[in-house]
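Please go through the protein record below and explain what the tokens say about the fold. Record follows.
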Amino acid sequence: MSLQKIQPRTAVLLLFLLVTAVFRIGISQVGGSWSNFTPVGALALFSGTYFQNRYQQYLFPILTLFFSDFLLMQTVYAKDGNGFLYSGWYWVYLAFAAMVALGSLIKRVNIRSFVLAAIGAALLHWLITDLGVWLGGCTDITTGKPFTRDMEGLIRCYVLALPYLKYQLLGNLMYGTVLYGGFHLLQQRFSFLKTIHA
């Protein structure tokens, strides 16, 4: 895709993604369960909702996540990393793709659809990524031993991740309000940003 072929609406959406990625990198040093208080869930929903082309809906936000992850793994988390990306990254990317798909289901953007999608995205992220934590044989931080390979171990893994779920939801709601609200205001001002239905 050459720069001359990028539609103005797509360019504005890409700018939203870029600003979100820069912000994510800037706030990444908080750590702990607050590390899930990021704009990435809202970014996934937003991309699914506003990019009209399916290819762009997934490619642009996943590349945004990849480049910010890569940069963070080479700088902020270099001492914790095991190379190119963090272990279990594919579970996060699967959750991210599921959030994009959820965002694409929003046909009429309003407060209700946004809040429901933000809740759904947080739940998807929690269910998918923590299933990956459990399947990956990660350690229960309260016992120092791997989670047991039974329903009790899986439930324990999900329970320990509840603080991360909370901050994921708060991030989705706060950053989503900025992304969806900001784009809505721009659409009111600039008609070329409005969705054209085929």
Notes: The chain has one domain: 3-193. The radius of gyration is 18 Å.
